[in-house]
């Protein structure tokens, strides 16, 4: 389960030039996690079927500094 600002499933720390994961991976969105966390805590059994795709989209980083004229520590 990943944690991101939207509550959606996010594959964090994935290379832009290499395949994302060497083995099949399921990523769970935090907004959908409660029933799974509850079942896991109760020791319930489950079957996972993954029928999905993956994709890429552009992203950016913002680096900034706010200079208010104060001396630097």
Question: Overview of this structure, please?
Answer:
With 73 residues, the protein is largely without helices or strands. The chain is 11% helix and 0% strand. The protein is built from one helix and no strands. It has one helix at residues 34-41. The longest helix has 8 residues, at 34-41. The protein is flat and about 60 Å long. The protein starts with 33 loop residues before the first helix and ends in a 32-residue tail after the last helix.
Produce a short descriptive summary.
With 73 residues, this protein is mostly loops. The protein is 11% helix and 0% strand.
List keywords for this structure.
73 residues; little secondary structure; flat
What is the secondary structure topology, with strand pairs?
Blueprint: H1 34-41
User: What value does the average pLDDT take?
Assistant: 80
Helix percent reads 10-25%
| Distance linking N and C termini | 38 Å
Order of helices and strands: H
Helices, by number, come to: 1
| Unreliable parts | none
**What Rg is obtained from the alpha carbons, in whole angstroms?**
19 Å
Main sheet? none
Given helix and strand content, the structural type is little secondary structure
Task: Count every beta strand, where a strand is a DSSP E run of 2 or more residues.
Answer: 0
Looking at the structure, what is the overall shape? flat
Q: Strand content of the residues, in percent?
A: under 5%
